[in-house]
Amino acid sequence: MTDYVHITVESNRISLECAQEAIFVVCLDHEHANPTPPENSSCLQNHEEELARRAKHLLIGGGSRANGMNRWYDATIQLIVSRNGTNGLCIEHSTAEGIVSINMAESALRYERENRKQRQMGEAEKEIHARPLSWDVNPEAVMLLEKQKATMNELTDELDLKVLIFNDFGRDFIKTHQFSPDGFVQLALQLAHFKLHGYVVCTYETASLRRYRTGRVDNIRANTMEALEWVRAMTGESSEETKLTLVRKAADKQAKVTEEIQGGYGIDNHLYALYVLAKQSLESGTIPELPVFFRDFMWNELMRFPLSTSQVFYTNFCGEQVKKKKKNNGISRSPHRLTFLTAFSAMVLLFVMDTAVRIIFRMTP
């Protein structure tokens, strides 16, 4: 827990400790105007845009000009409820992985659905009286807050969040061709990036290590040599047979990488731990400089993830993390459709789905 004994104003210290110790935070947002859909837009497009707008609202609340100041991002769980019906969770991952909070939310929603007709009223064990938190803010703090509000608005304006619902096929159809749906989408993303930029790119995808004591996560990488060989074939003059052979090879490699990482044989945690230890040794004067491995250009490239992705297994899929200057994607797979929530541009989404269609129909008998 954060120690606030250094704060001289007693009311500020008490308020900060109260916020810090809260199990979760409830954010009651004011309603804000919904944008009017274009006249020539489809029902699906309107639905996608509405989902994106709601997800963006949950994440940042429209900046300081709307509901963005009605957030406490240090809290592990923020339950956000708006007057217009938008509601959901905003999760901070430091305390626990997102899967823990999402499983809790899924259980609560399932319990509500299963017991909706009972209409039982519970009684609290003790009466709780809400009270405002008191703050004493000096002029210097006001200036700092105004500066942070400007920074928040800048980040809000930079966020480009899109939802794409792909109904042509989903998880089941991909599996009928002996493909992992996750590996399938990862390869599609690599090909989309290659078509846009001319190279494959480091990808971060969370692999849970919760099966191990104190385990958190490691990283599943998708920019393998097999993937590179395949994307080159897809954008070149190779035969259809060659492309199909190479995509199978790339998919098999991706499946093997995933199995290795989930088995505890990943490289990212191990290498980053060595890097942190080396930095600590450098700061303490134990070593004169970082080992050459950590000073090499390739180390920086290895730990730079322009593509940060996550697969979503949950029925109440809503959002995904967003980081500045990164292309982030949440992919929800249902039996008959794929749903993308992404900070990609619309052009990248089109490339991804074009890639998906080309792959799957080349495998279709």
From TrEMBL:
Q: Which domain of life is it from?
A: Eukaryota
Q: What Gene3D superfamilies does this protein map onto? A: Chloramphenicol acetyltransferase-like domain, Choline/Carnitine o-acyltransferase, domain 2
The EC number(s) this enzyme carries: 2.3.1.6
One Gene Ontology CC term in the entry: cytoplasm
Q: Where is the Choline/carnitine acyltransferase domain?
A: 10-317
Biological-process GO terms, alphabetical: acetylcholine biosynthetic process; neuromuscular synaptic transmission
For this UniProt record, give its keywords in alphabetical order, as a comma-separated list: Acyltransferase, Membrane, Neurotransmitter biosynthesis, Transferase, Transmembrane, Transmembrane helix
What GO molecular function annotation could you give as one example from this UniProt entry?
choline O-acetyltransferase activity
Name the enzyme group at the top EC level. Answer: transferase
**TM region(s), chain numbering:** 338-361
| Family per record | Belongs to the carnitine/choline acetyltransferase family.
- Protein name, UniProt field: Choline O-acetyltransferase
Q: Which organism is it from?
A: Ancylostoma caninum (Dog hookworm)
